[in-house]
Every structure is written in C-alpha cells, then in structure tokens.
Amino acid sequence: MYVCVCQAVTDSQIREAMCEGVCSMRELRQRLGVASECGRCSRCALSILRGQQLAISANPPQPAVAFA
Asked: Which residue segment(s) compose the domain that 49 sits in?
C-alpha cells in the first residue's frame, strides 16, 4: 500500500528500511523522503514504524547458533 504518494513510498519499503536499521521518523525521512513534501503521510508512517517496533520487541531475533 502506498503510504507516501508524493515520494511513492510503500509500507513494504518502510518495513524493509527498518530491517536495515532505520528506527525513527527522521531516519525514514532521510532514507525514503517520507513526510518531506506535504506531510499527510506522517501519521501513517509513524504508525507503521511503531507497529513494527512493537512486533520486533515482542519477538526479538534469536542469535545464530554455531555448530562445531
């Protein structure tokens, strides 16, 4: 789904950016241009950001186990 029409940014792109380390609206704006034009997408983008952060904190990635 398109979140930011001005920059053609989708919810999938926001989630992908978060997997690459983005963790704030400022970083989303710098990386993808979200909320840098009209700003109408900022609430939706923030909602996706927070939802993804909650999902990650509820299910933290497990460390890889090395087999000898």
From this structure: 2-58
